[in-house]
Every structure is written in structure tokens, then in C-alpha cells.
Write a structure and sequence with these properties.
Number of strands: 14
Strand content: 25-35%
Largest sheet: 6 strands, mixed
Helix content: 10-25%
Strand order of the largest sheet: 3-4-2-1-14-13
Shape: globular
Length: 224
């Protein structure tokens, strides 16, 4: 199963061919409009957001068994769903208010969906907008604590497990602030159940930076 996660920075209709060229079974798309998701011909699609022009969308491109689960619309933004027995939370960690934002939102999402993430092989993937380097800005609910919580639920970052990088010391960047290479950060993740096997590729900035400040994650999961 191939899952592509990309913060496409708006204008998905003009960038759809780029995503389809990656041949995903599922695409998780941050900063996309409700209309562009609704206009796809896919049999499974979902969208959430407060701004109809800029939310989180999921598209199932291939013929599989999909089930959408209920999410708290006040936690921006996440979509829990199941595909062929794999529980997935697509994520765009955003801001609800000054106290509940970015990694703190993700902590809350994980807390509310802990049973979901442990009841079957699971994945949480998307734009987390967080990294260990900013731990001091989020006392009590920082990125390092999130990594520990997810490990406690049996989920590990596919990138870190494969590359051996420590959180906060990633050699590959997924986001380039203002599209400048010297402002690179690693803030997009795929945390997968330890029992699952998968490989993760990160889009090359030479190919993707012209379209978005985020690079796509291309996750291939070995199916039983």
C-alpha cells in the first residue's frame, strides 16, 4: 500500500497530476480546498477544516475497503479512517487558540484516539508542524514527549527507524521556510506500528520546492 502525504500549499487542482504520478493508493493533503477534494472521482474522499479553501483532505485512489471514523471538529485538523484493516490518522497540526496549537493539538488528538491507534495496525502521518528543536516552546506537551507517547502506543517514526537519526538532528528536511534551503526543518512524519514493515521516501527539493515549501512523504507499507 502506498500512502502519499503532502502539504501542497493550496491549488491542488493544478497539482493533482504531480500526486497521481506518485501512484498512491491514498493521498493525505494539507492546505487543500474542500471543493478540490469533492470534485475528485475517487470512491473514498474526506475533508475537514474551518476555511473551505484551506483544510485537510484524504483521497482513496484505489479499490480498497475504506471506513471513515468520527473526529473532533474542534481539533484542527485530522481525519481518522481505516483502509483494509490499517487504522490511519491523517494530520495537519494547526492552531485552535494560543494554548492549543501545533504539537499540543497532536497530543490531544493522540489522547482521544489512543484506543483507535492500539486496536489494530496503525499509522499517523502528515504535517505535524513540530520537532524536538522547539521543545522549550511547548512545556508539558512537546515533540519529544509526543514521540515517547507514540512509542508507548507501539508506533515509531519510519524515517528515524530506518535512518538512525535522532529527533531534532534529521539529515533530511521536509519543509523549507519561505522556500529557502538554509531554512530547512523536519516537521512531516509517518509513525507506523512497530509490527508493520514500511519504507519512506521524501521528495527531492529540486523537484518539489517550486510547488510547495513542503516535500511529500511517500510511504510504502508491506501488506501481509
Amino acid at each position: 500500500m502506498r500512502i502519499v502525504s503532502w502539504n501542497c500549499a493550496m491549488g491542488f487542482a493544478k497539482k493533482r497530476a504531480l500526486v497521481e504520478a506518485l501512484k498512491p493508493d491514498i493521498a493525505i493533503l494539507a492546505e487543500t480546498s474542500q471543493r478540490h477534494i469533492a470534485e475528485t472521482e475517487a470512491t473514498f474522499k474526506a475533508w475537514v477544516g474551518s476555511n473551505p479553501h484551506k483544510g485537510l483532505g484524504v483521497i482513496g485512489f484505489t479499490n480498497r475497503s475504506y471506513m471513515l471514523h468520527e473526529a473532533d471538529a474542534l481539533l484542527p485538523w485530522h481525519i481518522p479512517f481505516t483502509v483494509d484493516g490499517l487504522n490511519i490518522i491523517g494530520l495537519w497540526a494547526h492552531v485552535r487558540d494560543k494554548d492549543l496549537k501545533y504539537v499540543r493539538v497532536t497530543h490531544e488528538i493522540v489522547s482521544r484516539h489512543a484506543d483507535f491507534l492500539t486496536s489494530a495496525p496503525s499509522l499517523i502521518i502528515g504535517d505535524f508542524n513540530s520537532n524536538t528543536v522547539w521543545d522549550r516552546e511547548h512545556p508539558g506537551r512537546n515533540h519529544s514527549m509526543l514521540v515517547e507517547r507514540l512509542q508507548g502506543l507501539g508506533l515509531q517514526s519510519v524515517y528515524h527507524r530506518a535512518n538512525g537519526d535522532a529527533h531534532g538532528a534529521e539529515t533530511s528536511k521536509t519543509y523549507f521556510h519561505t522556500k529557502r534551503l538554509h531554512f530547512g526543518h523536519h516537521i512531516d512524519y509517518a509513525f507506523l506500528s512497530e509490527a508493520c514493515r514500511g519504507s519512506l521516501a521524501i521528495g527531492n527539493h529540486e523537484d518539489w520546492l517550486k510547488y510547495s515549501d513542503h516535500m511529500p512523504l511517500i510511504l510504502d507499507i508491506v501488506e501481509p
